[in-house]
């Protein structure tokens, strides 16, 4: 190709201004972890010094979603979701294998978020997330699951980890003790959670135990029993040094500080003073303190961008019309709230809407639930696109 001199100069200028296909891209992060071992101080808010890591597992899901967009005009916005810090769920023994590769690109300034989620008799009050371990398989939980997770964390002493321990488990023991399934699961939940807290109490780790949300343990009658249930397990674990407090709103839809609150005009609202997550964190936090347990909190804001979608506060499955919420930040405006974080990976389903499936739960068939939806944890492309379109703040 022969260029005139002016054309050549124009070409050279544009080549300087915009990177060409051959311009080396800055590597995302070649090195894993810090140069020395990480020691986290769980008496402080580690999220003020570490950024929640945008993990490569979710990045791959989002990149596949970008390639499959039904509306290509969403591409630029969709690609940005991959850069948001999000927790990685270890929901089966096999899926512990997702952790090691996801640690290859965690820079020293980031903290890797991991959800520990495989108790025997899991999801005792619902069906959608019933797990692989049956009630009674506590030894398998300890040796094949918790010990295996601990081994990976120990093999990466130079990486910082934030763990969320067993979403929904202890809250179910507080409010669903009338169900036979939860009665059957109770001993294994208490023993399993205590074992996880004890075994994962490593210097490079901070731990948060799940406490449901304001519409769950926030009811007046549940505050004290809830705090006592969590505190008893924390103490049974030997009051571990790396324990920081609770997670709330995991995979949930509640607003942080909406006042008077999304469900404040319902007939029973007088019995729940925790009408948003901020009041829950503060009110339940006081109960935790009284029960003798550390009470700082992280709050899942991954999918709470839109309010007013649920018919009832307890509706939890693939709420239709939802949008991505506040991006992870340690600027919460509350001393007890360490950070807003993304826990539920937006785009992964809460449960199937297929009524013939073994794990079909009627909540996933309610009129405010998005349909069709695949099995819990599986990708729902259409739902991801809706979360993006309804994101608040927008991408
Ligand atoms: C599912 C898990 C999944 C997690 C994150 C849970 O509801 O049961 O399988 O890993 O959500 O999407």
Automatic annotation (TrEMBL):
What Pfam families does the record tag this protein with? Glyco_hydro_6
What lineage does UniProt assign to this protein's organism?
Answer: Eukaryota, Fungi, Dikarya, Ascomycota, Pezizomycotina
Q: Which UniProt keywords apply?
A: Carbohydrate metabolism, Cellulose degradation, Glycosidase, Hydrolase, Polysaccharide degradation, Signal
Q: Where is the signal peptide?
A: 1-17
Enzyme class of the recorded protein, top EC level = hydrolase
Which species does the entry assign this protein to?
Dichotomopilus funicola
Q: What is this protein called?
A: Glucanase
Which ranges does the record mark as transmembrane?
none
Q: Where does substrate bind?
A: 89, 91, 213, 216, 316, 344, 348
